[in-house]
Amino acid sequence: MGTMHRSGVFKKTNERARLVIATILGTVLGFFIGVSFPSISLYQIHLPSSLRSSFDVSVSNDQDFMVRPPERTMDNLPKIYVPTNPRGAEMLPPGIVVPETDLYLRRLWGEPSEDLKKKPKYLVTFTVGIEQRNNIDKCVKKFSEDFQILLFHYDGRTTEWDQFEWSKNAIHVSVKKQTKWWYAKRFLHPDVVSAYEYIFIWDEDLGVEHFNSERYIQLVKKHGLEISQPGLEPNNGLTWQMTKRRGDKEVHKITEEKPGWCSDPHLPPCAAFVEIMAPVFSREAWRCVWHMIQNDLVHGWGLDFALRRCVEPAHEKIGVVDSQWIIHQVIPSLGNQGKSEDGTGEGVRARCKSEWSMFQKRLASADKEYLAQLGKEG
């Protein structure tokens, strides 16, 4: 028994020794293989070509995204606080801050600096439904490559516009049953459209046979108009004398209305006034007007009487371009999108009138509150 016990112990000892030696040899062998492996080309290993191709793509894609981070760590980032930066960006170095954006279309490939063959200088927006596509096609063709086209679709139908070649370079925004002022407040923030010298915010039912966009811009600049509109054909959809086209002028800024309608010849609707169907704003004027648009008052009624607050002197910087005129076709397309208790568009018009009253009251209240604060401070 004693001999057998010693033999078993000796056997187990030998097995342990062999295991230790094998482990050491395996570790050493693995080390040398690991050191020498990077020098082995994948193409020296005879893998199938399809497998090598897939492997190459996988490695390449990984390398594209595995960019070496800068040596600086989070612990030694510079402590930055720049109070003159835009709100929320105070902790960023000014050189990386981009406070404004644009609506320029970009490619998904190539060099960013080569994306744009030409940067449009002006922005033209139409709020549209598919039934007016042929009229909008005529309108768009009046604008050159200097004008970026932006369509707001109130009927949710966008793909049908692909029949027009220009539509491929237009910007399409679709939200059902909304007005152009609803769109303008949400998508034309001044910091978004700051790249454009002038912003056109037009209805869809305008005839442009007698309109030339390049000439219009020339006249606006020549006469110093910050807020303007084309003259209206006298026999179609005319509401105010101010917007009536005059055949003997390039531009007019003052008119005569019905007796008693203008307490001052420099005040609306006899001056400092254009309608909301086809206004054109300079970049600077729009920055002010945008802030006046109320989120819940979507039809914009009453806004035309308040535009004068955004330019000074208003009776000189707001005007009508007579020699480039349009026709208001008076198509109640958006009104038909509305829904009222009796199933007609009358509910939409009632909302328009109500908003006009609400806007005037809000504006008067804001004036009163501001003046009261000045009185207390004094």
Commentary on this structure:
This protein has 378 residues and is of the alpha/beta class. Strands 1, 2, 3, 4, 5, 6, 7, 8 and 9 form a 9-stranded mixed β-sheet that branches. Keywords: Membrane, Transmembrane, Transmembrane helix.
Summarize the structure.
The chain has 378 residues and is an alpha/beta fold. Helices cover 34% and strands 12% of the residues.
Name some characteristics of this structure.
378 residues; transmembrane helix; alpha/beta; 34% helix; 9 helices; single chain; 9-stranded mixed β-sheet; globular
The rounded distance between the terminal residues' Cα atoms is 116 Å
SS strand fraction: 5-15%
Q: Fraction of residues in helices?
A: 25-40%
**What is the radius of gyration computed over CA atoms, rounded to a whole number of angstroms?**
35 Å
Q: Outline, from the CA principal axes?
A: globular
Unreliable stretches covering 5 or more consecutive residues: 1-7, 35-55
Task: Tell me the total number of β-strands.
Answer: 9
What's the overall average pLDDT, rounded? Answer: 84
Structural class: alpha/beta
Name the helix and strand elements from N-terminus to C-terminus, one letter apiece: HHEHEEHEEHEEEHHHEH
**For the report, how would you describe the main beta sheet?**
9 strands, mixed
Quickly count the helices. Answer: 9
